[in-house]
Amino acid sequence: MSGPHNSRREEIRSYLTGYALALALTGAAFASVHWRSFIPATTLCIVLGLALVQMVVHFRYFLHISLRKSARDDLLLILFSTLIVTLMVSGTLVILFNLRERMM
Amino acid sequence: MSADEIRHAGLNLGVTDALTHEQAESDVFGFWVFLMSDAVMFALLFATYGVMLPATVGGPTPSSEYKLLPAFLETLALLTSSFTFGMASVAMKHSASRRQLLGWMGVTFVLGIAFLGMELHDFATMFGDGAYPTRSGYLSSFFALVPLHGLHVFFGSIWIVVMMVQVLTFGLDVRVKINILRLGLFWHFLDIVWIAIFSVVYLQGLIR
Lengths: 104, 208
Fold this sequence. Notes:
The complex is a heterodimer of chains A (104) and B (208).
Chain A: H1 4-34, H2 40-61, H3 72-103
Chain B: H1 18-52, H2 62-65, H3 68-93, H4 98-128, H5 137-170, H6 174-206
Helix pairs in contact in B: 1-5, 1-6, 3-4, 3-6, 4-5, 5-6
């Protein structure tokens, strides 16, 4: 069993890991746009992919959401919200881009 | 059921304060529901922004208005403030000295205000270029999305000051501790929304 003192060091290390990962991912995203090393479509995919990874990092290291057995309610709520958001956002985009195509 | 179990999102107090830990479960979960509904609102504003993006009607475009360096500095400020708030939560949990807790919260507050200052400067530059909300559909959706996040950061900063005053007047009792846990969730959540903003709004607009 780890005492409160050990857990403190562990928690600080967890925040530091999250901070380092977040800085690296942010830096990579800005660098890929700044130096234009890829064609625009590839850069966009890289930026959006890095953003998704960084969100997971923030949830894991700053909000302490994990796949562990306890705290399932929080995880379920996130997954449900993600489902709702995906449905509404993708629905909006599909319908309105289709509408634009027909109007042009 | 041990007190060490994770009961809610964010830093758990666990064995360091079992009584507060017990009570935090339902309180923090309620706040978590609010945050997720806030996330749905932001997601739909992102969808609106995506739809409105080509609607510039000959006015300012994303690539003419956004600048990479200010967006990067704002990101750094907010990211660092998320980390410093994490340090404040750890200081609270392990009952470090009150000065340490207030110090980390103060640093977070300063970084939040610095972020707001840079963002307002950006908006002022955009207004100077004739990029104001009524100019085009694209700018309306931009000024609906990004300043709303700024407004959240503004109220978060006020909340930090309120909590610092509460720590000074009431000390770290159960209510104050749970409020700081909630504030932590709010602050980390705003950082996650900002990730989406700098990727979808700023970086996407600057890709050439």
